[in-house]
Amino acid sequence: MDNTKRYERLRERYLNGDLDRRKFLGLIGAAGLAYGVQTPFARQALAATEQVRFDGWGGVVSEAFRKYAFDPYTKKTGIKVVDGTFGGGDEYLSRVKASQPGEYNIAHLSGVFDYARYHNLGLSSVLNEDNIPNLKFVIPKLVDVFRAVTDGKLSCVPYDYGTTGLAYNRKYISDDEMKEKGAKILLDEKYKGKIAGWSDWRTRIWYASLQTGQDPNGATDMDAIWDAIRKHRDLSLKYWTSGAELMSLLAEEEIYVTEGWSGRIYALQEQGHDIGYMDPPNGFGWQECLFVIKGSPMEACEELLNFMLAPETSIAVAEGQNYPPALDPTKVDLGKKIPTLPAFDPKGTLEGLTFAKPDYWNGHEQEWSKMFGRIQKGY
Amino acid sequence: MGIEARERRQPWILLAPALTSVTLLLFVPLAFIVVYSFWLRTATGADQVGFYLDNWQEALGDPFYRDILFSTLRIAAITTVVCAVMGYPAAYFIARSRGNKAILLLMLMLPFWISYIIRTMSWINILGVSGALNWLLQTLGIINEPIQMLYNETTVILGLVHFLLPFMILNVYVALEGIDISLEDAACSLGSTRWQSFLEVTLPLSLPGLAAGGLLCFVLSAGTYITPLVLGGPRDAMFANLVFEAVITQLNWPLGSALSLMLLAILGGLVLIYNHFLGMGQLMKGLG
Predict the structure, then answer these.
(1) Min Cα–Cα distance to chain A from B86, Å
(2) A281, A320: one domain
């Protein structure tokens, strides 16, 4: 409520006879005093928002953000965007947990399960959606899943989506062989020493679920899953830990097949590498969001989010990072390149993608991450 | 205040900034880690404050941690031996060379100007399937197909030796520099061969330097995290990787604290044993 509205209400109560003249003047005086005292500090506080920290996945994604979003935003508002990177959501959460409130502001988080984890740890903020009018362009399904976690409110805006599918070197593995074997190709003895995988326990369990014919959002035979993970480990050359490492392993032909992030594989294809990409049935779909961490300068962050969601910015970033934007293709013309990106859904319903169920994954996080850590090291 | 009292107080005044820094930056965080190790991680990832022995029971009783700890100590021991075997002749050569000692020492220090991570990653360009060595072997017609050389325990040890060799050389060099060269001449004049004078005179006198270099190499390699991550395969994790995983991936800071204290206790114990028998003086000389 702003000061004008407060004054109008007081005046109304005075005119209605609810307040006597003396009390009315006293309250007006007190309000004036409070305003006079707080305004210089409030101005200073607003002026003090000289920078906003943004953390993302690095590489081509960060380059795209810097070029198409941060630099123009700084030019327009004078607020500097300090961009940091992380190799994974777990690592970043640990850094945030160790930090002081306000040290980290906006994070490019992956998956609703990460959003739920941050919320459960008390790190979520409440966005004033009036300050983000461009939210209306976003696919409603992507917004609703976040609202369901935070009681109808939002701590983030959806930004892009993609898949973790199968990436393979066409020089050694044909498209037909991939279609025939699907996720099971990661367990094929023929490619021993030329297989890799992400060192992320969720991805490992998701793909092991597919390899053992189970629902990735509701596996019942965990022993079979651990056995599949062990087999994959024994056939693998390495677990990669970042997008840059994934690209390097494939480009240098250290490996022939792995699961990989759709945007990174598209970037490899753009560079001229003959790398194929396939989403197997029930492949791992995910959506990324721009999450505002509790203790951040909200107005500055909301302005940045609104700026980033503007169709021209969002499309430019999407074209740079090779992940389809969260913008609804039925409301916004997404141009020529985006419809060619892997995982893109022209209808904006995202019915073809299978997303991770936050309750299922977060409910088993402690037990499964530990178990995978052991298997990864030979147990 | 008497002169005696002032003199007694003076060293403490001079030491105060260093002691304050060490207390604030080492002992206070260490105390936090000790306290943390008795807390518990809840299902949501938040910490449960209290006094629980669960993490210590798990860290000390679970064979998984014990096995990785032994594997880490084994890799550290192999690295130390390789550093000693490779480092001693290099240090001897530098110590006995005339005129170009400063240049040789400068060359020894050069790798420190480049980030440790970059130096470690450089092996990927050398030993990778499309790396320099495979290219050379294929160009020379020695092999037809590239050999898979990376991502195993050998490359982890190689990366560690690459990182730690200068520490060994410097320590041995300092010890050799302190030996009067006329002692070897004296031994030779009394009838020993050059090899005998080395074995009977130079080597025993340089052992404190070798031990100091060995201790440094062992402690640093046992605590390494980057090298196995970059150059290791799926089974080549070392103990520090477990600490990283507990703290970062599993968000289990209490267990990570217990594990890191366990490693600290073992390596600290080694340093104490070394100090008891040889003293820290030689180590300081090598580091200086």
Answers:
(1) 29
(2) no
